[in-house]
Amino acid sequence: MTTEVGGLAKVDLHRHLEGAIRLPTIIELSREAGVPLPAETPDALAPHALIREPVGSLEEALERFAIAQNSVRTYEAVRRIAREAVEDLAADDVRLAELRFSPHFLCDPGRLDWDGAMEAVADGVAEAVRAGNDVTVGLLVIFSRDYGLASARDTVRFALRHRDRLVGFDVAGSEIGFPPGAYRHVLRPPRDAGLGLTAHYGESGPPSYVREAVEALRPDRLGHGLSVARDRPVRDLVIERGVTLEMCPTSNWLTQGVPSVAGHPILRLLHEGVKVTLNTDDPGLMGIDLNHEWAVAQSEIGFTRDDLKAVTENAIDASFLPPEVKAQVRSRHFGWLDAGPSSGG
User: What domains can be seen in the chain, in order of their start residue?
Assistant: First the structure.
C-alpha cells in the first residue's frame, strides 16, 4: 500500500533557486532581455533546457543551467524567480523550505550587483508569502567552486554582510578536482558567524572526499553524499558526527550518480542509521517537484509511510531555520508526523 503524498506537508532542504525557474519564465525573461533561445514555446524549449534522461556526468548537467542562467539579467527578474520559486514550493505542499543561490552564478549574465540581487531575492520571497503562499523559507548562499578562491572570499564577505537574511552557507559546483581541504579556512568565518554549513560532496566524488569534507570542513549537512553508501567507515563517520545528507534521487539518476532511481541508496542508508532527507535539487531543470520525489521514493525505492515520516523529521531537525520557527511550523502543519506507526507501506 502506498501513501497518497498530495496534501501532506513536506520539507525541501536542497532546492537551487537558479534550478527552479519555470520554462515560460525563461522564455519571457529571455525575450525581455533580448537573449536568443533555440525555441520559443515551453514544449519546444524543453529538449534544450531540461534534463529528462541521464547525461554523461554531473559536470555536463551543470552546463545545462546556461539557458536558465542567461535569462536572468535584471533585479526584477531575480525578484520574479524568487517569488515564483516560493509559489511552486507552496503548490508542492512544502511548508518548510530552504532556497539556495550562488550570487556569482546568478549575477554574472546581467553584471548585477550582488547586494542588489540579495535585496531582490528577499523581496521576491516576502512578496510570495504576503500573497498567501504558506511556506517558511530560509535562504542559503553558495560559493561555486568553479569560480576560484577569490570568489570564495567574496562570497564569504557577502554572506557576512547579509547574515540577518541568511540561514546557511553552501559549497557547490563541479566536485572532481576540488578537494574539500582547500576550503577549510574559507568556511571558518561563516561558521563562526552562526550560519549553518552544508557542502556538495559525495555527489560525483569518491568516499575520500566525504571523509575529508566531514573532518576538514565540519559541515552540519552534505549535499547529496551519495558515496557515503560505498564506504562503511565513511558511513560510520557520518553517523558519528551527526551529519545529515540532502539526497535527491531523480537528480542523482540524471547526473549518473546512481544507475537508476530504484538503485538509489537513500533507503538503505536511512535504515542503517544515517540522517537522510529527501529533496528536489533542481526541479525546474529536471521537470520534477517534491510530490514526484515522494511518489518515486515509494514506487521505485520502496519507502513506506514510516520512512517518509523519518526523512521529514530528519529534515525539520536539520533545517538551519531557528528552532522556535521550526517548532511553530511543525505544530501548524506537520500533525501527520504524530500519527501512530503504519501497518504497512
Answer: 10-334 (3.20.20.140)
